Amino acid sequence: MTITIITISSQNPGDYVQNDDVIAQIETDKVTIDVKYTEAEGGTVKQLLVNNDDTVTVGQPVVVVAVGEGSPPAAAEQAPAKPKTEAPPAAAAKPAPPPPPPQPTAVPSQPANQRIERRVKMTRLRQRVADRLKGAQNTYAMLTTFNEVDMTGIMSLRQEYKVRGGEGILGEVVFWVVCWCV
Fold this sequence. Notes:
Elements: E1 4-8, E2 16-17, E3 22-27, E4 32-36, E5 43-48, E6 55-56, E7 63-67, H1 89-93, H2 124-139, H3 152-160, H4 172-181
Antiparallel strand pairs: 1-3, 1-6, 2-5, 3-4, 5-7
């Protein structure tokens, strides 16, 4: 495995990365692998050495990270904690009135049989699977035939020669073998 396609995740120069952050994804014909930042100490992305959809080789550097520089995102950017407010005891005793029922909104009318279609670029893995399936379809004979046969005569013959105890029962396979050999 020497040639792969790379997809850079949302990391840009100047972004802070810490342990187990996904920097990129490498796609081969058989697998998609996450490239994670593995240093214990966080750092700042200085430079991206490859672009999206570039072909890279095994061992090729992908990104330059300055270890120990920068700081993690501020706590203010994270979800703020909800302040606890106590309601007066009198307000807690009264049940709140039920909210009014929602008003129906106008839904744009679209025919039920019309679908919205869009084309999305296939990953290398899906391209390889599609190639293999098409190759198998073109190479091997895949044929199924159905023949309608009147089996009433065979079923009556089987009932006539049916013996109790399971011995002497004529199976359907016997008749099929005779038909195939004739």
